[in-house]
Amino acid sequence: MASASFLKSSPILNKSEWLNGQSLRQPSATVVRCNPVAPSPLTIRAGAYADELVKTAKTIASPGRGILAMDESNATCGKRLASIGLENTEANRQAFRTLLVSVPGLGNYVSGAILFEETLYQSTVEGKKIVDVLVEQGIVPGIKTDKGLVPLAGSNDESWCQGLDGLASRSAAYYQQGARFCKWRTVVSIPNGPSALAVKEAAWGLARYAAISQDNGLVPIVEPEILLDGEHGIDETFEVAQKVWAEVFFYLAQNNVMFEGILLKPSMVTPGAECKERATPEKVAEYTLNLLHRRIPPAVPGIMFLSGGQSEVEATLNLNAMNQSPNPWHVSFSYARALQNTCLKTWGGRPENVSAAQEALLIRAKANSLAQLGKYTGEGESEESKKGMFVKGYTY
């Protein structure tokens, strides 16, 4: 895989040349050769955004910071609002998203925010573009670009992620709107196999998405989520995750994806949610880091873990345990419910609670910032933050 420095020093192909997979041939020296020299098989990816992609990825993967995932679909956002007695209207979604992005000082702990399409084009209740509010906080705007999970024909009741059709034009439009990274979530179910077909479909879809995203200036977050559903133990999760990530990186390489310009959003290696034997943060860290060292190239700048239904505190403790020793990557968070839950409950849809809700989000963001630095202690956490949030068959 070509490094960023190699891309800078290499001859630049125009777009039509590298799309056709043309290989670079070195000029021949004035040496008599007995046999013809075969052309180099190396195809150089020299997209116009290469330097920007690397810079964006490094900005998001900056010390003590992680990602706020607020890319719930309108339907899922409606479920969250319903839990506090609010109707699922655009005005209510706008109010909650305004609350999230306008937390004073959030940019000290959050480097990127993943948005749903509605939110990317939305303004705050005060009329300011949400993208502009994030940028002023030093937070990189991102966008969910997949079109959701659908049944995978010929599989063991498994899913695949749709959305490749039209992705290039959508990504170009999102870039113009201010997005600089994107997310594509596909899932693998351990109780349902996973079948070789489902793993291959997940890996290939992620690779095509990543290549198309980079071509249009967006840093792709690569997210094959190993679902928590099931009674399996941590060893089985580890074996499945090894298989999935091997396949993912094989196809990323096949599609000429520049590793320095991607981010990963893996599941932590944990037992299934219904497994009777639970794992300590230290054990989760041991298994997860072993997986990373075996499968993830150090060229990848950031590993931004999803919480996957863990409680707020559990997700933070596990992240902290993984940062007790140096890693070749920035090991951090990309949490949705594990950042938003207490904030949402504190707000309750009441204007007078906005400040308290924003303070709750800031507390969680700061806790995960400390965990990214390996300095989180878990002291003073609320009972709400310790409640598990696993939902069987979770979709959004």
UniProtKB/TrEMBL annotation:
GO cellular component, one term: chloroplast
Pathway assigned to this chain's UniProt record: Carbohydrate degradation; glycolysis; D-glyceraldehyde 3-phosphate and glycerone phosphate from D-glucose: step 4/4
Main localization of the protein described in the UniProt heading: plastid
CDD domains: FBP_aldolase_I_a
GO terms, molecular function: fructose-bisphosphate aldolase activity
UniProt keyword list: Chloroplast, Glycolysis, Lyase, Plastid, Schiff base
NCBIfam families: FrucBisAld_I (NF033379)
Protein name (record): Fructose-bisphosphate aldolase
Source organism (scientific name): Kingdonia uniflora
